[in-house]
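Anyone? Bumping this.
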Amino acid sequence: MAGGRPAASAMELMEGATRTLPGSGRPSSAGRLSRGPLSGRMYGLSPGSRLLQPRSQENADPQKTAFLLRKQWTLYSVTPLYKFSAARLKDYARLLGVFIAAEKQKGLAVGAGAELGLRAAVSSLPELRGSERDPAALLIQLSSRSSVSPKNSEEKVIWSGWFCCVAGDDLTENLPEEFTCLPLFLANGAESYTAIVGSWFQKTFDCCFRRLAISPLNLTWMAAMWTGCKMDKNTSAMELLFSVPHLPQPLDISYAIHPEDAKALWDTVQKTPGEITQEEVDVFMDCLYSHFYRHFKIHLSATKLVKVSTGVASAHCDGIIKFLQSQYLTGVLMLLTELAISQIQ
Amino acid sequence: MPQRRSSKHSKKPLQVHNSNQADLSAWRKRGTVNPEKSVQNRRSLSDQKNDSKQDSLEEALSYFEKVQNRVSLKKSEVLQKHLSTVESIALQRGLPPEGFDVLLDVVLSGKLADTVNTRILKSLVPASVIPESSVVSSVSWLCVSKCSSNIQLLFLRWLITMFDFIDRKEQVHALYGIFFSFLNDEKLCPYICHLLYLLTRKENVKPFRVRRLLDLQSKMGMQPYLQALLSLYKLYCPELVSIALPRKVKTYFKNSDGLWKAAINAVRQRNQANSPVSRPLFLDTAQPQSRKRKWNAQLIIPASSANMQNLVVDSKKNCVDSYSTNESFPVERLQTFPQLLRNIHRLEFPSQMGSVLANPLLLHYMNCIKDESVYLRLYYWMGQTLQEECTWCVVDNNQYEEEFKGFLETVYKAECFLQEGFSSCEEFLYRSLPLWDGVSCRSQVLRLVSWIPLSTFSEMKSQLCDPLAQLFFTSSLYFKCSIIESLKELLQNWLNWHMVHLDSESDSQFCSLDTTLSGLVNGVAELVQFVGQISTAALQLEKNHTFLLYFILDFYETVCDMYLKYKLPLLIMPPAGVFYAALLSMDSVNLNQLCYIMYRYRTNLIAAKESEQNKKKLQQFKFSSQTYQEYNQYIIAMVGCLWTSTAFQKDNHPQGIRLDDELLEKTGVQEYRNSFNIVYHPALMCYAVDFLQQAWPDDTTFNFSLIKGKKWNWYLKYLYARGLEGLKLFIESSINRVSKASQSKAEN
């Protein structure tokens, strides 16, 4: 994979090494020199086991979230929004529209929005959450009217982004009321719009956006979790993309497996249905690696896992995801929410 | 001729914002933290540098003020000198407000050649603001058109770029008609339109002006700049502008700020870095465009009010002006301490909490407001920023090291100001220290370490001490010293915190005082022991280096006084590796310091013993008898060494210097017994030599044995007079002189 990869945090490297340590909970005694949230500290540890789907998964209408499928979403983590009110979405849309107009034509904020032919819409997506405790997801869409016939033509969405939180109890539990926890942000469209919308949110709700990269370790989790999902017969192959480090020329290895074979392998590895442990993930990947080694004499464990695609979704380590099955949308979002939370805590 | 008030050229002190800096030192809490001193010292140094620059700038300005006739740039070295002074200062620090009057007058009066005028105009970068009066007078120069049209044009571009830097705009607004009349000039027209666009208010839209613009449009065709102005007119008074304007125009005006933008940003960044109170005075246009690859990586956020939220409500109630109806005091206007006091009840935190960091007034405010959400907002922002910008954790961030350093400094200063550590900063250190190379941002990181809050030491041990110890043992002498120093400051911050909380004990905010206190005692004890361990090892590694020993003893100067000075029921003696290294050191400063420390230990231990006997407070913390025993062993060794010349016989410390006489005789040293007393001790021998020379100027044999009896007392007085205060305190407290009476007689 050539091209701009975002700066990978070296802290990722720590992850594997320290994951056996218990997450040291911070004592919430008053005898501290500093103030701050008194939540448990994880330092990028990932848990030993994960659930596949949120426990109380409502049967959401797949139609309503269908537009989220088959698009590339860039992932961001967002710190809790301060003084956000779900009752004011219309006002927010208007202010955001004004802000975008102002940003697009620096200093010339006249006749806001109208002349630019850009409209901002903010709406809620109540379908996307794990439980009642999660706040409803928030959708922002920027659409433009075609310039030919401004009145009648249909609006075209040129950029969309959404905030969501699926089973974010870790973070919501300790948070004061004036904060809204929507730790995962996904954007599709020109980055300049992401920047403008993001800046507006940062300024208005005092939150902080950060690109959410997915570590190779978490990619292996995704590979295992998604392999186990029940799929229709004719889904596409599972594909793992590896890149070989320290070479003068970039060298990528693509490893495609028939989904039924992968599922069969996974079924022999996994013990408790609905829950997955780190050990199972490791065993699953080791099996795939040794199979590959038998044929090509290449140790994949010495390379870096860059991308995982299955029938459920595909994820790139740069923090780009594509959802393919609305049935598993919340499941994937739950994992991503967890990753986002661990990045902001 | 434009009218000129003579007073405006009177020499006001340059750089208005300096007064702000002076204020700050008064606001800072006093006396507790040393680094503040060094900050001040550094500041005064840079002030000196600024002074000399200021002088040359004033010279240059007065030259330009007086310059009469056309001076050729090539021929006049004076002009060259002053011109380059103005240029270099403008690009480095920006020009003070008073400079604009003089320089704009010179430029627009056409006294000098255009090349000079252009260079001056290009360097008109403000340090803070541009006085309105100078803009008004330059417009009047513009009217008499003494300068070339190129200069006129450049001036207009400058004015458009700097529009937001003009301190007030009422008079400039009053010149609307004059600017409007310049529309006739075809060359200036686009820029005049842009300027009018910035200036236009509803009352400026008049039928005759609309007609004039429409005339121009019919003459010149559909020009985007005319359309921009017309659309603005139409927005204000739709009834006056009946023509249809295109809905979508890509850009109305050409960017005219290219010449100055980089300079403005550079000046702004530098001024922010230099001044401890960087006043976020600049408005949106000067906002540096995303400096980096990331759109949200802004380390210094200007404070802006959180009115965005209120606007929503206000606009529903009345569409007039949300500011005038709003009760709250906008943070943008908060610039002085009295203002803070007057408006503290109607102040609101800025929309982005991160902006308080560089704003001492808001830090004051933050100190007053006990609101958990304030800290939470700051916690999230700072945590994310530190992780994202960290130069050693994130690949490719190296190039931004200076910037990150500046950010860490700001965080550190805010911590000193608030006298408490930020938990996001602590977490950042725990996360990133294991990856730290000990080089990047070294002094900043080590200073931040000193503000780590006291928590369970087990966590600290693995996250902080272990990575620090690894770096400590593998790094240079100076790095070792700075680690010891920052651990000393860490200890002091903990102790200070403890003191403050003892004082506010009555608040009973901390009901579980006992557990907190024992936690503190354990934490402090483990920190002191940790420093003892690494110090012992480091002294061996560095062969008892004087410099290192100095820092270690400095640490123990705090440790030995914990009971009396900080009311903490804990005393820990230095390990033998430190004690003997200091006792036998070659350097009188360290020996003297050791004497002082032992004197303080004695005072503390005696006080502890007394309070134990009086059964006073803090009974649950009894000093272990081991501490007393250790102290006694040390004192025997010290007295034996320095005074009674019996160190090799009487020292009973297991790691001490007790040696058999046989072995000592084998060394062949004569009079080995007294070789470490105050006369023969290698750290003091130079004093003994000097004393001999003064007492027996003719004797060249250096007969040290002459120093005894009455002379011994003289020698002591001589040593005390040389500033060995610690030695004096030690000898007077710990050594029972045989006959004090006879001694004082002898002195008489």
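Late reply, but here is one note on the structure posted above: Chain B touches chain A through 75 residues (CB under 8 Å).
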